[in-house]
């Protein structure tokens, strides 16, 4: 199958299904669902299909840095959403995301240390996560809500995978967990349901990063031994099990 065709059909379908799932099961469950590797998994797959399996494996180290930056984005967006509208909140959060990515890129930590720091960071951030102020606002929906989300996510994925050969595996890995899904969730929830629902959704997403991070971490080992389909399948099951356990704890 043509890879470009796969990109422009797979990603919109995933975004639409996740959006519908969030509407059905609510903000916290929506965050957990959104944290699954719906975007990062296909991006890693496209890296492998276009650049080779070795490129994909080497990109995973950078992905750990990207996840640390993603945690920074979620916490900062949640905190600032209580006082600002979506646009300034997004700009501040992207700034902190970029600063975090640059700091940990400079430190050049190995995969094991990076994985441990991510897992510890998730747990610590949940202990001190910003609290919602007041109940969620009533749900509103924009016309063509789902098509807009689908289009934005597809453009992001096309851009990241197109730049892979220029950026190399490390920076490509850093951009793999770039908050594509998170940005869409944050902006639409903030605009339509208010800060409290946004904080609940993003907190659910951070909880899900325990499983998401493990999914990517396992690829560094599974892809050396098994096919892409089996590697992704094993790690996806582990991801789901971790998310189920984490949702009970938090």
Automatic annotation (TrEMBL):
Membrane spanning residue stretches: 6-22, 29-49, 55-77, 84-106, 112-129, 150-168, 174-192, 204-222, 228-246
Assigned keywords, A-Z: Membrane, Transmembrane, Transmembrane helix
Record carries keyword Transmembrane helix: yes
Domain of life: Bacteria
Record-given protein name: Uncharacterized protein
Organism: Spirosoma radiotolerans
Taxonomic lineage: Bacteria, Pseudomonadati, Bacteroidota, Cytophagia, Cytophagales
């Amino acid at each position: 199958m043509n890879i470009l065709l796969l990109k422009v059909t797979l990603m919109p379908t995933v975004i639409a299904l996740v959006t519908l799932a969030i509407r059905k099961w609510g903000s916290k469950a929506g965050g957990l669902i959104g944290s699954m590797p719906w975007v990062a998994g296909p991006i890693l797959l496209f890296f492998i299909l276009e650049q080779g399996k070795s490129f994909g494996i080497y990109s995973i180290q950078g992905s750990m840095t990207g996840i640390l930056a993603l945690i920074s984005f979620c916490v900062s967006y949640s905190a600032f959403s209580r006082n600002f509208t979506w646009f300034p909140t997004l700009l501040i959060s992207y700034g902190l995301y970029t600063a975090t990515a640059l700091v940990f890129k400079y430190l050049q930590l190995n995969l094991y240390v990076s994985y441990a720091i991510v897992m510890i960071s998730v747990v610590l951030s949940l202990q001190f996560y910003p609290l919602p102020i007041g109940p969620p606002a009533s749900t509103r929906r924009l016309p063509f809500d789902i098509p807009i989300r689908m289009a934005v996510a597809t453009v992001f994925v096309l851009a990241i995978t197109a730049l892979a050969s220029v950026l190399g595996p490390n920076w490509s890995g850093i951009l793999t967990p770039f908050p594509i899904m998170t940005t869409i969730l944050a902006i639409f929830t903030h605009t339509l349901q208010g800060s409290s629902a946004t904080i609940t959704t993003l907190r659910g997403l951070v909880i899900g990063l325990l499983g998401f991070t493990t999914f990517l971490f396992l690829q560094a080992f599974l892809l050396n031994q098994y096919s892409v389909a089996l590697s992704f399948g094993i790690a996806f099951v582990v991801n789901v099990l971790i998310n189920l356990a984490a949702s009970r704890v938090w």
